[in-house]
Design a protein that fits this description.
Layout: H1 2-7, E1 13-19, H2 26-36, H3 49-54, E2 60-61, E3 67-68, H4 80-85, E4 88-94
Antiparallel strand pairs: 1-4, 2-4, 3-4
Length: about 100
């Protein structure tokens, strides 16, 4: 990500959505991996909150920051349980 950031000009926007097993069983994870193995993207790479946040190093995060994707500026409020089921973190940052 540092090489990408260094190639960008001030004002550039970075949007990231990354899978994260927030509310899912090991069995469901294994099933998801099996599906990914049949695609052109054969590896399922999940990241925790800290890892996704680290991808924004050098960027100024827009509100609400890095959150479960269902909570990133939803049209209506969402419950914590629903947000966890999105199983992804999302965020947007601006390069100062």
């Amino acid at each position: 990500m540092a090489r990408y950031r260094d190639a960008c000009v001030p004002g550039s926007t970075l949007a990231i959505s990354n899978s994260a097993m927030l509310d899912i069983s090991e069995e469901e994870i294994d099933g998801a991996q099996e599906v990914f193995e049949t695609t052109t993207t054969p590896t399922l790479r999940t990241r925790d909150h800290a890892e996704v946040l680290e991808m924004f190093a050098g960027y100024e995060l827009l509100d609400p920051g890095v959150v479960p994707s269902a909570q990133w500026r939803p049209d209506q409020p969402v419950s914590e349980k629903y947000a966890a089921r999105s199983n992804a973190y999302a965020g947007v940052g601006i390069l100062p």
